[in-house]
Amino acid sequence: CGPMPIKLLLIDPQNDFCDLPGAALPVPGADADMRRLARFMSTVRREIADVIITLDSHASVGIERPPFWETGDGGPVAPFTVITERDVREGKFRPRDPALQTQVLDYLRALEQGGRYQLMVWPVHCVVGTWGHNLHEAVANEVASWEAHALRPAWRVLKGQNPMTEQYSAIRAEVPSESDPATQTNERLIARVRPNGGMLFVAGEAASHCVMATMEHLFEVFSPDECRKVVLLRDCMSPVTGFEDKAEAFFAQATARGVRVLTSEEAMTLI
Predict the structure, then answer these.
(1) Can you tell me the distance from the alpha carbon of 270 to that of 198, in angstroms, rounded to the nearest whole number?
(2) What gap in Å lies between CA 194 and CA 171, rounded to an integer?
(3) Angle at the Cα of 246 from the Cα atoms of 240 and 234, rounded to 5 degrees
(4) Residues sharing a CB contact under 8 Å with residue 223, sequence separation 6 or more, in sequence order
């Protein structure tokens, strides 16, 4: 009987989320997280059966980006502004393209009824084709080493390409669009990351947002036994500043489901 096969799910391990010079949306501690992740991958490379990587993937203009919006008097909207349906109805903010007003109001209503998020205007980040969209260098090198060992590619999943809906979770957008399958539940991804007879190890950025959102959707469809086969690499993910409590609540919720929350060093003892 050989070692238990493991799958590795890397959620948005991209330059723009790392505290590196030039990063658009740096998460404090993320560079060190990714270096620990790279060491973990190097150590357990031969035991990794599959690597799945999600990539936040945007254009420069979208509903959660400053260039999309203006204030009621035509001024710019700063990053980290929260915009509600009521704000738009009262004229505090508006889309720079007036033709999108009705669609925006419908979106904000659906988003707020969903109860998970309000619209946050983030700095422009993870634009496809830019340095910020790329994998952190240490992680990219280890992914390449695993691919050379396994003689097959890691599976890269792009998310967030529809400019009219936010998508924290790799499983589906916050408000899926009936006309865009890419925003709807990614059943292929769910099937690929199921632990099956092994274990699923999870790392990435940020613990408070895209990691949490993706895993919450997976926990909804994983059986209790599958949840017990999930390991969150706690020292390979960090929260966005100001959202530390959200990350801690996520870890507590995961633990209550039987998920293990371990450091990468602790996790190596399971393999």
Answers:
(1) 11
(2) 13
(3) 70
(4) none
Question: Is 13:205 a contact under the CB 8 Å cutoff?
Answer: yes
| Mean pLDDT (the chain, rounded) | 96
Place of tokens 């990539």: 55
Sign of the CA dihedral with 177 first, then 24, 239, and 145 last: positive
pLDDT in tens, 6-33: 999 999 999 999 999 999 999 999 999 9
d(CA 159, CA 58): 8
Helix ranges (H only) for the chain are 30-44, 85-89, 101-114, 137-150, 187-193, 210-221, 224-227, 244-256, 264-268
pLDDT digits (tens, 9 = 90+) for 47-80: 999 999 999 999 999 999 999 999 999 999 999 9
Under 8 Å between Cβ of 168 and 199: no
Percent of the chain past pLDDT 70, that is, above it, reads: 99
3-state secondary structure of 79: coil
Pairing of strands 48-56, 155-159: parallel
Which one, of 194, 140, 142, lies nearest residue 171 by Cα? 194
Contact 164, 95 (CB under 8 A): no
Closest CA to 40 of 196, 271, 265: 265
Q: What is the largest CA-CA distance in the chain?
A: 69
Angle, helices 137-150 vs 30-44, to 10°: value is 20
Q: Residue 153 gets which letter from DSSP?
A: P
Residue 132 phi/psi, 5-degree rounding, is -65, -25
Q: How far apart are CA 31 and CA 138, in angstroms?
A: 9
Check if the beta carbon of residue 215 is closer than 8 Å to that of residue 254: yes
